Amino acid sequence: MPNPRTPLSKAKLTGADKRNPQRFRDRKEPQTSGKPVGAAPSYLTAGAKRAWKTFASELGWLTYEDRAILEITATMRAEIMAGSTELPASFFTAYRQSLSALGASPTDRSKVASPDDPDDDDPFKRFHS
Known about the structure:
Elements lengths: L7 H7 L1 H4 L1 H4 L21 H13 L8 H15 L7 H13 L4 H5 L19
Helix pairs in contact: 4-5, 5-6
């Protein structure tokens, strides 16, 4: 099995971008506000709040923009943490998809690409004040 691509944000956290700069030279990641993901919403259950906190520590690249999908994923992890024994296979498929949306594996995170700065292609840029 091929080695999965490490996302740029993870490479920066681990120093891999310094060890192998050529691997990360052309990587692009979406622009975000840069604000941290923050605390779990008050309306989540205690278990979902614990799961939220765990994800926030496990996935250090999460930002404010990840909150909506993190709510879903934390709620699902809370069910698993509670020891629910009768969860259908479809639950785990949805859980895996939620993890993928959060970039919980290096391969998932590297699939997200952002367009270049739109101002770079603006032929009228020089006329803006």
